[in-house]
Design brief:
The complex is a heterodimer of chains A (256) and B (191). Chain A is mainly alpha-helical. Chain A has eight helices and four strands; from the N terminus they run ααααβααβαββα. Chain B has two domains: 78 residues, Winged helix-like DNA-binding domain superfamily/Winged helix DNA-binding domain (Arc Repressor Mutant, subunit A, Orthogonal Bundle); 94 residues, Arc Repressor Mutant, subunit A. The chains are: A mainly alpha (256), B alpha+beta (191).
């Protein structure tokens, strides 16, 4: 091992391999697997000596390299079934390296472009849009709760006590509401509950709406006190919404 | 409306515009003015601003036109604004490149290409609005499929995705069969 310690931060095992291939001035398509494996393992050892955290992926690649190396030692196609005959055990690795290298180059090309806030700048914008359109006023939480109560009161009271396990999630309702906003642009608060049948569904729908307000995907307005409440897509709805929906899913997955 | 008047109004609109604006958008704002004329004047403004001694450029980006500072002045502008370093790490750039070229793509597919976990990077990119979940893939687990956003185009000064430089082709090698452009995980790795 050379005493010249190069402390490069490798993005991953493929990155390290590419580095070694370049350093040895060999071709990706004809990797001297023994040499490269040796140097790869030496680098891992070095990283461990330096107490760098060697991620699991590096070890998986080490195993792959050793596996390929051992297969290279076998006489070609001796015991192997026909399907393997003629294939180089390095093929899959070569394909992955080339694939990764293409994107590494693509990333470098991207970085060479005129980047906003690094090379070029735009006028800083004052967010005037958040003031709300057309003289609408923002709705208070109390007014929202009042409106919610009216919706619940409107539900048929005489219905038999249902014990159904309708699994309506807040996330589903969020997605539904977003879909409707995408096609309509805005919806009346009351219209939100038009086809809602159960108390539970009202609550879930309401929560979904609140969640979307929280992430600024939608805005809620009212033209006048006690007037109809309007739900509208906010400027950054798509991005905010996608993030919110993802967050919800993650929470579900982690079983919170 | 006089031609000069249209030109003057267009310049004002470009100045106040939040983000790139399309010719159509200007057409709506200017009502009776022909789109052809608007396009012609935008081209004119563009070449005027490209001239010597000018510090603002009219750039075609993300499907519209936007005023941006001249690249040559970057250091001065940064200093003036109080230079916060906006460097983007390699992991971020690589992941972004993969998503840009392969969208829509799942996290697992990105990881197969990069050979490392991309959880953190994806979160950062989502937070910065450079990517978004565009759909779910119809495979077990229904993972999100990610794609780039308008902000991505703006960041890298791209008119649209077709402006991305073409990826170098994989040549001169015997390739194992690849299903679609989904990269199968290395069998040896899994076992």
């Amino acid at each position: 091992m050379s005493t010249h310690v190069q402390l490069e931060i490798f993005e991953g095992p493929l990155d390290l391999l590419l580095h070694l291939i370049k350093k040895n001035e060999v071709s990706i398509t004809d990797i001297p697997i023994a040499t490269i494996t040796e140097q790869y393992l030496a680098t891992l050892e070095l990283m461990e000596t330096l107490s760098l955290d060697v991620a699991g992926e590096f070890l998986v690649m080490a195993a792959t390299l050793i596996h390929i190396k051992s297969r290279m030692l076998l006489p070609a196609g001796s015991d192997e079934p026909d399907e393997d005959e003629g294939t180089d055990p390095r093929d899959e690795l070569v394909r992955r390296l080339l694939e990764y290298q293409r994107f590494k180059e693509a990333a470098e090309q991207l970085e060479r472009r005129e980047m906003l806030t690094r090379d070029v700048f735009v006028r800083s914008v004052t967010p005037a849009e958040e003031a709300g359109p057309r003289g609408f006023r923002e709705v208070s939480v109390f007014e929202l709760l009042g409106a919610l109560k009216r919706v619940i009161d409107r539900l048929p009271k005489d219905s038999v006590h249902e014990v159904t396990l309708d699994k309506i999630t807040v996330r589903e309702k969020m997605t539904l509401l977003l879909d409707r906003l995408r096609s309509l642009g805005n919806i009346l608060f009351d219209a939100l509950f038009n086809d809602v049948r159960s108390r539970m569904e009202v609550v879930v729908t309401f929560l979904a709406m609140l969640e979307l307000v929280k992430v600024r995907a939608i805005r809620i307005y009212q033209e006048e006190m006690a007037g109809p409440i309007m739900i509208e897509a906010a400027a950054g709805m798509e991005e905010a919404a996608e993030n919110a929906v993802i967050d919800e899913t993650e929470e579900e997955q982690h079983g919170t | 409306m006089e031609r000069d008047e249209v030109k003057s109004i267009l310049e004002s609109l470009l100045f106040v515009a939040d983000g790139p604006q399309s010719v159509q958008r200007f057409g709506e704002a200017l009502e009776s003015v022909e789109l052809d004329l608007i396009q012609e004047i935008l081209n004119e403004l563009q070449s005027e601003l490209a001239g010597p001694g000018r510090g603002v450029r009219l750039v075609e980006v993300a499907g519209g036109y936007q005023l941006r500072t001249a690249k040559a002045n970057a250091d001065w502008v940064k200093k003036f604004l109080g230079g916060r370093p906006a460097r983007m790490g390699r992991a971020t750039l690589e992941t972004l490149a993969i998503i840009a070229y392969r969208q829509p793509i799942t996290k697992a597919e990105i990881e197969a290409i990069r050979g490392v976990d991309v959880d953190g990077v994806i979160t950062t990119l989502l937070e910065r609005n450079l990517i978004r979940a565009v759909a779910r893939k119809d495979v077990p687990g229904r993972p999100f499929l990610y794609g780039t956003t308008v902000e991505f185009l703006q960041l890298f000064n791209l008119k649209d995705l077709s402006q991305l430089p073409t990826l170098k082709e994989m040549e001169d090698i015997t390739l194992p069969k690849i299903a679609g452009d989904v990269i199968a995980l290395d069998q040896g790795e899994e076992s």
